[in-house]
Specification:
Two copies of one chain form a homodimer.
Chain A (H helix, E strand, L loop, with lengths): L1 E4 L1 H14 L4 H16 L7 H14 L9 E6 L2 E5 L5 H19 L1 E9 L5 H7 L6 E7 L19 E5 L7 E5 L6 H10 L41 H17 L14 E8 L7 H16 L15 H13 L1 E4 H13 L24
Parallel strand pairs in A: 3-4
Antiparallel strand pairs in A: 1-9, 2-3, 4-8, 5-6, 5-8, 6-7
């Protein structure tokens, strides 16, 4: 059973929960916006249902700092490195992407690496911020080891995702956001929850052998996820190396350590903004991008397939629909949100696809 | 039957052939160095045997300009776009990577995109140039359509490779260089030549169905190469999207067009240099990189495997061996080189692993 709620109402409730948890109001609003943006785009793995409870748990254990003082470690005109002071990536990264965009406006490109911050949420949120300045946005994040290197039998790298957003001449940009493993971790978690088998090439067994047939999700093999490519013959050394490159940019470049040194849910982040106008006429760039996307869409479909998609097609359509018809939340999630609000003396989530988000009142003095 | 020749002797002969073909002496030496570097690293697909004849053919048809005037199109402090004037990528890119490194020295990062240039040779040659300045080097190239998008049945993207080189505290850097398709095109060409089957996940059939069993190389399916991931379940939309991102950076960003608009062997190129010293202490960065590589090497190997490798392990060892013991060339290649030298009144290639490259005389006035 699902309940449909408006993104306005959900954003208000989540903002209030973050504020009650000690986040400054600006950060609370931003964090809520990142989570709800994921739900709007159909990326539930990084939305309210899947992440908010986890974040509150990290606050309780002290793993997460709700009021980080982000420190500039080193800076050059087009680059900067920061320490995130154990702040949540979804709170810390948007301001830093704005900084990368400022640098790109002046120098053509801006590049920022952040150590010692926590979960980044949906990476596409951050890469897409660059689109507002008609720039290409890049975001990559390294996480704790879940992925086994080619020819290995122990996890050594995170699913280390990468997102790239590129502006077009239409409203709909190109937006890629994906793990460098065969699948994102949540696909495995979801299969386990649903009692469904794991897909071909998602995991290795305890001996390191790639599981190339659908496999029961019961075995404790989620710590042996396979890199994109799955097998040596299929090019898994490429997915493995891409994960290592993300580790370099997001973990080591900002003066941090590779994630294998840390236990738990640590993250390093990498952001870049590239101004197409520094390279060519920006309108011609966006026009060519749109025609490139049309050209990909026009690929004759494989027998049995309807059409060739381009990165962001599905998420864009989902967002259009959910802005109109509301975000579906499982009733257990709504019950948990109600309970969380009750405990904190907050108004409950307004139901219905047209629920208003107005009336949200900052509960603390502004940041 | 193979003949072993020293890299010095091979470099000399190839330099002379490029000069005789009309390249300025500096460019001829650089082009020879790029081809021989590929042979030293065991990347024969991009070495003398496989590429030189093709380049000479392009010169004859006018597809390639031996004396390009590379034009700066647009510049910001940390970025630049160039038109390659139909010059060969292996001649044009090294100077532009030097420019990217200069920009990175001053601004932290340097990024350069080049339209209207030809084949880049082994991408790792260019990314590795940044290592000489203790920087991270990036190189990506877009080429003519060979790869079919997920759910499609016609090629729309090149194998669009990416290379990233990262300095370490030891002599041996991390060097990734790979196509965003399951395999590089030459693996398919080699299988056909040897009458061996194509591997699982390398190609789709004419209906767009991924061929997931070893398949005869006779069918005309080399124009339906699969993106990394091979199948939708295996994450082929990721390889497909990575190829599209390379197309954006290497083709569209420098004010060019996507490769699907062009017929033949055109290329766009993208270069970046990132200075770790702009982000953190550069020695600490290189030290952490080395320990990261040790950590990856220390992964317990899968049952039946000897060890976990890191990008550049094999190429580095091959280069050490070939510098000592010579580069093995098929005798047909040596015969072709002899014929090519005879036609141009050049001294023939000196045989033997210790053959000297000294005595190479520039045949034309300097560039």
């Amino acid at each position: 059973m699902t309940v449909r709620v408006s993104h306005h109402a959900l954003r208000r409730t989540v903002t209030q929960i973050f504020e009650a948890a000690g986040f400054p109001p600006g950060d609370a609003r931003r964090c809520a916006d990142v989570l709800v943006a994921a739900d709007l785009r159909g990326v539930e793995s990084h939305g309210v249902s899947n992440m908010l409870k986890r974040y509150l748990g990290w606050l309780e254990t002290g793993h997460l700092n709700p009021r980080p003082v982000v420190e500039l470690l080193r800076e050059k005109p087009a680059t900067a490195a920061y320490d995130g002071d154990a702040g949540l990536g979804i709170a810390v990264l948007p301001d830093l992407m704005a900084r990368a965009v400022e640098k790109a406006e002046q120098y053509g490109v801006g590049m920022i690496a952040v150590r010692n911050a926590r979960h980044s949420g949906m990476l596409a949120y951050h890469s897409m911020l660059a689109l507002e300045a008609d720039m290409i946005g890049v975001c990559a994040t390294s996480g704790g080891p879940r992925v086994v290197p080619t020819f290995g039998r122990e996890a050594r790298l995170g699913t280390n995702p990468l997102s790239v957003a590129v502006p077009t001449s239409t409203q709909r940009p190109f937006v890629f956001d994906a793990a460098t493993s065969t699948v994102a971790f949540n696909k495995i978690a979801n299969a386990r929850r649903a009692g469904e088998p794991l897909g071909s090439g998602w995991c290795a067994d305890q001996d390191g052998a790639p599981l190339m047939e659908p496999t029961s999700a019961d075995a404790p093999i989620d710590h042996l996820m396979l890199p994109l490519g799955a097998t040596p013959e299929g090019g898994s050394h490429k997915g493995y190396s891409l994960a290592a490159i993300v580790e370099v940019l997001a973990s080591i470049l900002p003066g941090g350590v590779f994630m294998g040194r840390l236990a738990g849910s640590f993250s390093g982040h990498f952001l870049a903004a590239i101004d197409p106008g520094a390279f060519t006429d920006p309108e011609e760039f966006r026009q060519e991008m749109s025609e490139f996307i049309d050209y990909l869409h026009s690929t004759p479909p494989a027998v049995g397939s309807d059409q060739v998609l381009v990165a962001n097609d599905l998420e864009w359509e989902t967002e259009r629909s959910r802005r109109e018809n509301g975000i579906p939340l499982h009733q257990e999630v709504v019950a948990w949100l109600d309970e969380t609000c009750d405990q904190r003396n907050l108004p409950r989530l307004v139901r219905g696809p047209k629920g208003s988000g107005e009336g949200a009142v900052p509960r603390r003095a502004g940041r």
